[in-house]
Amino acid sequence: MSTAQTPPSSAFEAAAHETLVSTLRNTHAQEKQAIAVLESQLKLLTDYPDLHARVTAHIVETREQARRLEAGLEACGDSASMVKDTLSSVMGLGQSSVQGLSDDAVLKAVAGDMMTEHLEIATYRTLLTLADMAGKPELRPRLEETLHEEEEMAAWFDQNLDAITRRFVEIKTSELQAHAARRSEIATAEEESTAEPKADMAPDTPPAPPVPKEPRRPDAPAAGAARRDG
Ligand SMILES: [Fe+2]
Predict the structure, then answer these.
(1) CB neighbours of 13 closer than 8 A, spacing ≥ 6?
(2) Residue 228 pLDDT
(3) Is residue 6 part of a domain?
(4) Which of the two ends of the chain, N or C, has the fewest CB atoms closer than 10 A to its terminal CB?
């Protein structure tokens, strides 16, 4: 619903207002896209509890950021209900909704998220300047609140990137070790199976023990003794 608007006092202010509205609209679409991207990442992050928790919290923040933008559009006389969430091609550069389960999907997701946060910081700083130039200072508190959240998110990534990367390598190490252990087990099983006798061969039997010679009785004549004595 449009609200009563003070007409722009100059052509410059009118141009700034038009730019402000279009940028608010694009940013709203970007935030909606960011929510979809972050939600799609959560399933990748189950082995990264801190990252999972921080991304989950930022999804909640981003939903509120989208609502602030809708309120900003209404304050500019633009009907928020008419906002069309056309996907931003800029956003698509760094992120698709699903990165896919590539080997380093988590690292790619984090790098993409960091890029997105810095894009958002630049966007909200631009919106603040546009709000001033368009004679809409009342938009500042909402935009500043969101800018602060984006800066906090970017700073968190910055502070945790090394730990996330280390965690990634630790998980990969465990996976490689488990893989090597499985291969070793398979190789051992194969060796054992090839060492077994074939079905058409007699099974190995232990050699029969030597038959002991019967000891000569003391009263028995030695061999040949009878002939010598007779
Ligand atoms: Fe963000």
Answers:
(1) 133, 134, 135
(2) 44
(3) no
(4) C
Question: Given this model, what pLDDT does residue 195 score?
Answer: 82
| 66 contacts 80 by C-beta, under 8 angstroms | no
Distance 23 CA to ligand 1 centre (A): 16
Residues with CB under 5 A from ligand 1 (ion): 120, 150
CA distance 133 to 17: 8
Q: Which pLDDT score is estimated for 209?
A: 64
Total of domains in the chain: 1
| 170 in any annotated domain | no
Predicted local distance difference test score (pLDDT) of residue 90: 44
Residue 103 CA to ligand 1 center (angstroms) comes to 25
- Average pLDDT, 10 consecutive residues per value, the chain (230 residues): 68 97 96 97 96 98 98 88 51 47 86 98 98 97 98 98 97 93 94 73 57 57 45
Name the E strands within 19-129.
none
Give the Å distance between the CA of 138 and the centre of ligand 1: 22
189 in a domain, yes or no? no
Q: Which domain holds residue 123?
A: 11-162
Please give the distance, rounded to the nearest whole angstrom, from the Cα atom of residue 109 to the centre of ligand 1.
Answer: 14
How far away, in angstroms, is 140 Cα from ligand 1 center? Answer: 17
Residue 120: give its domain's CATH number.
1.20.1260.10
